[in-house]
Amino acid sequence: MSEEVFSQRTTTCGALTKADNGKIVVLNGWVHRDRNHGALHFINLRDRYGITQVVVDDDASPALQAVASELHLEYCIAVTGIVRQRPDSMVNPEMSTGEIEVKAQSIEILSRCAPLPFQIDDGKETREDLRLKYRYLDLRSQGMQQRLKLRHDFILACRKYLSSRDFYEIETPTMIKSTPEGARDFLVPSRIYAGKFYALPQSPQLFKQILMVGGMDKYFQIARCYRDEDARGDRQLEFTQLDVEMSFVKRDDVLSLMEGLFNSVFREVMNYELPARFRRLTYNDALNTYGCDKPDLRFDVPLCDVNELAQKSSFATFKDIVANGGYVKALCAPKTEGVDFSRKYITELEDAAKVYGAQGLAWIKVGENKSLSGGVSKFFAGLEAELLAKVDAKEGDLILFVAHQNWKKCCASLSAVRTKLGRDLKLIRKAFEFCWIIDFPLFEYNEEGGHWEAAHHMFSMPQAEYLDTLESDPGSVKGDLYDLVLNGYEVASGSIRIHDVELQKRIFRICNFDDKTAEERFGFLLNAFRYGPPPHGGIAPGVDRMVMIMSEQTSIHEVIAFPKNTAAVSPMDDSPSEVDQQQLDDLHLIINYPKPKA
Amino acid sequence: MSEEVFSQRTTTCGALTKADNGKIVVLNGWVHRDRNHGALHFINLRDRYGITQVVVDDDASPALQAVASELHLEYCIAVTGIVRQRPDSMVNPEMSTGEIEVKAQSIEILSRCAPLPFQIDDGKETREDLRLKYRYLDLRSQGMQQRLKLRHDFILACRKYLSSRDFYEIETPTMIKSTPEGARDFLVPSRIYAGKFYALPQSPQLFKQILMVGGMDKYFQIARCYRDEDARGDRQLEFTQLDVEMSFVKRDDVLSLMEGLFNSVFREVMNYELPARFRRLTYNDALNTYGCDKPDLRFDVPLCDVNELAQKSSFATFKDIVANGGYVKALCAPKTEGVDFSRKYITELEDAAKVYGAQGLAWIKVGENKSLSGGVSKFFAGLEAELLAKVDAKEGDLILFVAHQNWKKCCASLSAVRTKLGRDLKLIRKAFEFCWIIDFPLFEYNEEGGHWEAAHHMFSMPQAEYLDTLESDPGSVKGDLYDLVLNGYEVASGSIRIHDVELQKRIFRICNFDDKTAEERFGFLLNAFRYGPPPHGGIAPGVDRMVMIMSEQTSIHEVIAFPKNTAAVSPMDDSPSEVDQQQLDDLHLIINYPKPKA
Fold first, then answer.
1. Model-level pTM?
2. How many A×B Cβ pairs under 8 Å?
3. Which CDD domains does the entry mention (chains A, B) (predicted)?
C-alpha cells in the first residue's frame, strides 16, 4: 500500500500570481538559479510551466537553512511555503510569476545533481555531441521545451483538421517487404526464417495506395519513415511525415486540402494568417524566375532571361553561348545600406555560382544617373536603358549575369547568387511564404546507370497528353506531381497516382525494371490494381522540416527529442552497438568484417 | 496542365435523402450488388460512407445499357444521374439512403475488377490467409471499415484528452540500442558500422523515463513497439501502445488519469458511461476471489477459501492438503436453464482445471431442499448448511472444489473453471468492466535460470516497507505496480519508477545483472539518474487489444489494417523475403543457414 513519500505539488512553477498571496503551496521542480546573501537564500525553482522565486528568509529554522545551503543547480526539490507578494520594487514583469515569491517553510531534496557538463539553456554554445550525450539535460532548456511543445501542437492540429474532414488515421506496418528503389532500405533479419528479412518502410507509399484500393477513401498517418542514406547535413535515419492519400481526387483537391490544413494549423498554432490560396508556379517558371524548384519567396530579386540583350551586346562570350542555344540570365542586387558591392564581395558571389556549374559571374554597377560601370558594362553601350528596364535596376544596384549552355545549370548558378544576396543584403522578410511547384518532369536521366528513372517515384501519373510518348520521349513527359515549398525548403511532395496495371508496368519498364523484377518487388501493388482500384492521389508534408521552419531553426535536430548525430550515432545510448553472439546466432547471421586497409 | 479525366463525385454514397429529390449528382464507388431485370439494371453503389441504389431504366440509351451490362462486382465506377424518391413500397428503412434512388444518366468505368477470391463482407467465413493476401478486398468490408474507424476515433479521443491535460506527445526513436531483457529485440544492422546494430524498441520505456529526467513533465505517445517473440495466438511482431509517463506523481495520480481518460473516451466514442472510479483489487485479493490477476467482472461466481470446511470434512484428500499448508477453494456454478450439470460436463470442467495444475475437480450437486448429492457430498455430512452459506449455493447449483498445495495453481485451476462456466452458462453481461489490480509482487523466480527476475520490468519501484528486505526476501516484495483489466484482458500495465541510481542497481543485481552488464546496457539511464531525476511513473494501455475489446472481437488481427499472420508472415507482400546480395554485402552480413536436419 505504501508509496514513495514526498510532498507533491499543489501548483506548478508558472501559475502563481498576487491573487494567490497568503496561500500555502507546494512546488516541485529544479533549482534553476541559486543565490545566497548571508543567511538569505533565493532559489529560482523551475518546471515545464515556468519559474518561481523561492526565498529562505534569514529567520528560517536551522534545519531549513541547512537544506538550503546544500542545494546546487538542477537538484530536484519539493518546496512547501507561503505565497507572498513582492514589494513593488522587486516585481519582475519578465516572469509570469514575477509578482510573487514563495517563502519556504520546508524543502525536501528529491534527488541530487552531479556537476553539469554544460549550463542548461546554453544550448547553442554547447558542442552538439555533448548536448546529445546529455540530452536529458539539454531537454530541460527553454528552447527544447518550447520546440517540442510546438511540435506537439502542430501535429495535433493537423490530426484534428484532417479528422474533421473525414480522414481516418490508419497505422501501416513498419516491418514490410524490401522494395528498394532510390534510397537503401534498412533491413530487419527474421529469426524464424533464416536468410529472410523485413524492411523498414522508406514511406508508407504502397500501403497507403493499397488502403485506397481497400476503399478507405481518405487516409492520413503521422508516419515514421526510414532511409539508409549516407549521413549528410540534416538527414536523419528516421524521420516523420504527415502521410495523406485520397480517393476520387484530382490534383487541385489535394492542393486545396493542404491550403486549408496549413491555414487552419498556422492560425491555431502560430496565430499567423496565411493566404487562402498559395501561389502556384510551374516547374519551368520556378526555374526561370528563381533558378530553382524550391524558391524562397520571402524576398524578390527575380531572375531575368536576357538572351535577347546578350545577342545585341558586344560581349562575345554571351553571344556565343546564345548562338549555340545556351542561356544568359541576369538579376539585380538592390543597393543596400552598409553593403559595399566590392570586388571581394563579387568574387564571393561568383564562388557561390561556380558551385553549380557557372564558369563565371559577369557584373555591371549602376551608378549615378543610371550610368553603367565596371565589369562587362562596356559591352552594353547603347543598351543601358533597355538593360535597366529589363532587370528593373536603380541607382546603386548591381546587375549580375550567368551564361551557360545548360538551362538548369544556368538557373541553379544564378539561384545560388540570389540566395546569398537574400541573406547578405538582409532582404528576407519575417514571414511564411508557401508556394506550389507543379508540372514537374516525370523522369530524369540517370547518367551513371544509363537509363531513365522516376524524378519523384514510380507511382506518379503522367499527364494525359504524354501517354503516347512515354517511351519515345521520356524526358519531356510532365507528371501530375506537386511540391509544396516554404521559405526555400521543399516541405511536401505528392502526386496523382497511377491506378492502372498496364500503365504502371510501362513506367516500371522505362525505369529499367523488367516485368519479372517489377512483379517480384511490386507484385502485390499490381495485383491490387486488378481489383477495381479508384483514382487516387496524395501528398506527404515532412513534419521535422515543417516544425524546424516554424520554430525558425536551421537543423531538424532542434525539433527531434532524440536525434542521431551526423555520423548516424546516438551519443546518449551509443547506438548502434555490438550485440551478443547469441543474438547473431538467433538471427542466423555472421558478420563479414571489411578487411582493414593496408 | 492536364489531369485524368473522370466525373468526380458531388456527394457520397451515404448522403442522399428525399430532400435531394430531383438533384443531378455524381457518385463514385464500387458495384456492391448488381441485378438485371431485362433491360432494367439495379446497381448498389458503395463507398466508405454508404450504399446508394442506382437504376438504369429500361428506357436508357443503348450506350448506357451497354455500359450497365458490362458491370461486375467491385468495378469502380462514376455515375451521373438524377435523384428520385422511391415509391413508398420500395423505401428501404435499413439504408440511410433508402428513401431514394439515382436514375443513371451516364456511367463511366474507372477500373475493372478480376473475379473475386471471396465475397466482400464474407470476412468471417473466409480463411484468414486469403483475407490477408487480398487485404485490399477485405478492407472494403463493412466490418473492417467500421473497426478501423473505431480505432481512429479511439486514438484521436485519447490524444485530445491527454493534450487537454497538458501532456505533450513526443516521438521517441525506433532505432535504439539493443537492451534485451525479457523478450528478444529485433535488430537493424548498420551499414556504416560493420558488426553494429540498432534495435527496434520493445517499448519506449527508457526514453520516456529520460524525457521525465529532461523535465518534460507529462508525456504520451501512440508508440509502435516490437518484440521478436515466437508467434503464439494473438501476438504481433509490432503492436501499438498508448505510452504515458508523468513526473511528480504517486500511484493514484496515474490511476485517476486513466479513469478520467477512459470515462471521456468511452463516452465520446462508444456513447457508454463508465463508473467514475474503477474497482481496485490487490493482486492477492484478485487471485483469491477470481483465481487470476485479470478477472472478468462481467459475471460474478467468486472463488471461496474453504480450507476450514475442508478440515472439518471427512475427505482425506482435502484434509491432507490443508494439513500440509495447502489450499482448498470452491465456487458455485448457478443453476441455468438448458444446462445439465452432467458427468460429461463436469469432466469438461475438470479438464479445464487440469491444464493449470489441478489434480482433479471435486463436486457436489445441490438438490431439492438444499440436499447435497453426488461427488464428494458424503464427506460433508453435517456441514451442509455451512457449505451452502459459504459458497452461497441454491437449489440446482453445482459446487466445485480444487485443492492444491500451491496457492497460485489452486487459484488458476479454479479460475479456468470459472471462465468456462461464464461462457457456457451465458453468465457474461454485455458491459465494459474495468478494474485495477494493484500491489503486485515485484519479482518472480525464474526456475530455469535459477534467479529472480522482474515480474513487470526492472524499473518499477518497490513499496517502501520492503526496501530493507529486497535482497533477503525478494519473493515477498510488493511493487508500486498496477494493471488495468477490462473484461478479463489485461489492457494496461504500469508502475511508479525507480529514480535512484543505487536502488536501480540493487534491482539489477537481484535480477542477475552484474554492475558491469547493467552499466553496458542501461548506463545511459543510470547516468541520467545522476542529474536530478524527478519522481515519476506511468502506464501503457495496449491500443490493439483495447480496440479489439471495444469492437467485440477476439483477435487483434481484426483491428489492424495489415497484420502479420500467426507465422509472422504477411501473405500480401510475402514479407519477410530474401534480399539482394548487394544489400547483404552493404550490411556486412553473411547468412548462416541452419544445417538441414538429417
1. 0.96
2. 390
3. AspRS_core (cd00777), EcAspRS_like_N (cd04317)
Tell me which H or E stretch contains B110. strand B100-111
Give the CA angle between residues A439, A441, A444 to the nearest 5°: 165
> For the residues A524-549, what does the mean pLDDT come to?
97
**For residues B39 and A515, is the Cβ–Cβ distance under 8 A?**
no
**CB A463 to CB B2 under 8 A?**
yes
Residues B309, B321 contacting (CB under 8 angstroms)? no
Those residues whose C-beta lies under 8 Å from the C-beta of residue A66, and which sit 6 or more positions away, are none
The annotated binding site of B for ATP is made up of 227-229, 236, 490, 542-545
B52-106: pLDDT as tens digits: 999 999 899 999 999 999 999 999 999 999 999 999 999 999 889 999 999 999 9
> For residues B260 and B274, what is the distance between their CA atoms, to the nearest angstrom?
10
Asked if A296 contacts A433 with a C-beta cutoff of 8 angstroms, the reply is yes
Cell of A363: 557584373
pLDDT band at B598 (very low <50, low <70, confident <90, very high): low
Q: Is A456 annotated as a binding residue?
A: yes
| Cβ neighbours for A1, distance < 8 A, ≥ 6 positions apart | B439, B463
C-alpha span between B416 and A78 (Å, rounded): 48
What is the C-alpha to C-alpha distance for residues A585 and B184, in angstroms, rounded to an integer? 12
The answer on pLDDT for A2 being more than 50 is: no
Domains, chain A, in order of start with CATH, read 18-111 (2.40.50.140), 144-281+434-559 (3.30.930.10), 299-424 (3.30.1360.30)
Q: Residue A4 carries which DSSP code?
A: -
Angle between helices B142-164 and A142-164 (to 10 degrees): 140
* Strand pairing report for A218-226 and A168-169: parallel
Q: How confident is the model at residue A152 (pLDDT cuts 50, 70, 90)?
A: very high
Contact across the interface for A250 and B534, Cβ inside 8 Å: no
| pLDDT tens digits for range A246-289 | 999 999 999 999 999 999 999 999 999 999 999 999 999 999 99
Residue whose C-alpha is closest to residue A297's, from A544, A547, A491? A491
Give the mutation candidate from A191, A198, A559 for the B interface (greatest B CB count, under 10 A).
Answer: A198
> Distance between the two ends of chain B, CA-based, in angstroms?
65
Nearest beta carbon to residue B587 from set A5, A6, A187 = A187
Chain-centroid distance of CA B516 in Å reads 38
Q: Measured between alpha carbons, how far is A311 from A288 in angstroms, rounded to an integer?
A: 19
- Please give the grid coordinates belonging to residue A490: 521543399
Of B48, B113, B576, the CB nearest to A217: B48
Strand partners, B189: B197
Find, in chain A, the residue whose alpha carbon is nearest to that of B73: A532
User: Which candidate from A151, A532, A593 shows the least CB-CB separation from B113?
Assistant: A532
Q: Which amino acid is at A494?
A: G
The predicted-structure confidence for B446-473, as pLDDT tens digits, reads as follows 888 889 999 888 999 999 999 999 999 9
Q: Is A181 labelled as part of a ligand binding site?
A: yes
Q: In chain B, what residues touch A193 (CB-CB under 8 Å)?
A: 576
**Min Cα–Cα distance to chain A from B390, Å:** 29
Q: Give the residue on B whose Cα is nearest the Cα of A146.
A: B216
Helices (runs of H) and strands (runs of E) counted in chain A? 16, 23
Task: Write down the residue that cell numbers 483537391 correspond to.
Answer: A253
Kindly calculate the radius of gyration of chain B based on its CA atoms and give it in whole angstroms. 30
The yes-or-no verdict on residue A3 having pLDDT over 50 is no
pLDDT at residue B2, as a whole number:
38
Closest to B11 measured CA to CA, from B31, B26, B23: B26
pLDDT tens string B245-254: 999 999 999 9
pLDDT digits (tens, 9 = 90+) for B408-426: 999 999 999 999 999 999 9
DSSP secondary structure letters along A394-415: -TT-EEEEEEESSHHHHHHHHH
Rounded distance between C-alpha atoms, residue B6 and residue B29, angstroms? 12
